[in-house]
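Worked example 4.2. Below are the chains of a multi-component assembly; read each line carefully before continuing.
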Amino acid sequence: MSVVTRYAPSPTGALHIGGARTALFNWAFARHQGGSFLLRFEDTDQARSTRESEEAVLEALSWLGLDYDPVPGFEDIPRQSERLERYREAIEGLLATGAAYRCTCTVEELEAARRAAREARRQPGYNGTCRNKEIGPEPGRPFCVRLRTPEDGLTRWNDLNAGPSGEDISQLDDFIMLRSDGTPVYHLAVVVDDHDMGITHVIRGREHMTSTPRQLLLYRALGFEPPQFAHVPLLVEAGGKKLSKRHESMSVQSYRDRGFAPEAVLNFIARLGWSHSDLEIFTKEELVKLFTLAGVGRSPSQVHNDKLLWLNQHYIKSLPMPTLLSHAHRFLEAEAGGPLRVEPQLERLIDLLRERSKTFMEMASLARFYLVDALELEPKAARKYLTARMAQPLRELRDAFAVLPEWTQESLRGAFDAVIERHQLKLGQLAQPVRVAVVGGPASPGIFETLEILGRERSLARIDAALTRIGSSAQD
RNA sequence: GGUCCCAUCGUCUAGUGGCCUAGGAUACCAGGUUCUCACCCUGGAGACACGGGUUCGACUCCCGUUGGGACCA
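Applying the procedure described above to all two chains together yields the following structure tokens:
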């Protein structure tokens, strides 16, 4: 039988990195097995679920390159809010077989019973008042539907990540499946959905581990074959606390907006919990080939972005130019302050910037000197390098530049050499002032390459501006 | 409060009783390269939470403690 996995987020916000990793594991597992990977929205919390969030999740998945398959028998991605009838029907079935029963206990009665149980040091679960009352379909007062949990026994399953797991049923009470307002409870919906969608493997976060016994009970009561489960360890924040869904900076979108490549983010989150011996860098295709649940660890991992930064730079260095440009384009435009055409010179610059950029944001800011016309100089660098004693050499260099027969790295080097020799300077002593003049700061790619790319006209103008600046500050 | 889970360098991890006085990666530090920054190269420092067992032998198995976490209320 072919493997079918799913990712079933609640569309209540952006896709955060923990959710993305769960999706990734499900996706990689399915693709590795040649099975399918499905999506479903668990939007029973109508108050917080939004279509915008659904869009955000879809967009994040597609950015990461996690493609999903159509769900057989469904027009669109299933939404729990559109399946309420199906859940009620399942509950009716349960009532018909006696696996569930109606309960008319009021909130007050429940509270009192719970308090009494606590005082008697007993489990605070439902005390079973209505269990054998055989309450019919029209009780004449509000009712909920509860599962008739067996008195004793064990629910066991062999978790594909956590190993043999299970719980004593006496821990479980007759939990509610249909609330008195007529809405089904989460566990019921999940079980019915997973069954209807033909899910064979449920790979989800550890936080769902303790609710698995209940769900197993439901599978049994409904006469469904339970899937295999793998409860993978959670991702936690740097301090070790649970990843908060509110934390915007942990969202996939935020990583994108800060200039990370999807290839890097994917690689990073896969490696958070999954490993294949010492392999650190891998493509999506390699991940699919290598991914197994056995490779997923058992302890939670903290999200530290150090390694992501390194990975991102690795991908910036090695991605093919068209891919790189498509990722970087919006950042370059933002820096340029308007629409941008990528000319060959800019492409050359980007090539040089690859090994100097940890993010696309950084890359764009390093390319700023090329992208803008009005360049502002860093005061500190200007003070340090644009000194009065450098004015003369700079002026000579500028004049030599002006009459160069061709604007190439070789001829630029020749001009530098002549000035250096005349003034007994080291290359660095002359290169730094020039660098500050043309890029605005003390760091850039090699000076000859930088000048060549900037072009003669702009280079001369910037050196002139720098000379003017030296002149005016000398008179102060 | 109850149930369950987890525990190797700062971080991600390799490791399934002897091959480990613990390997890789990142981050950090030092040096090299260099016109600057970065890349790159070399080196350094850095961990089996603790206590009991089991065993000829434990980081690896068991129990407990501590710490962290999740879930149910």
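Take a moment to check your reading of the output against the notes. The longest helix of chain A spans residues 456-474. Chain A has four domains: 1-71+233-318, 83-232, 319-371, 379-475.
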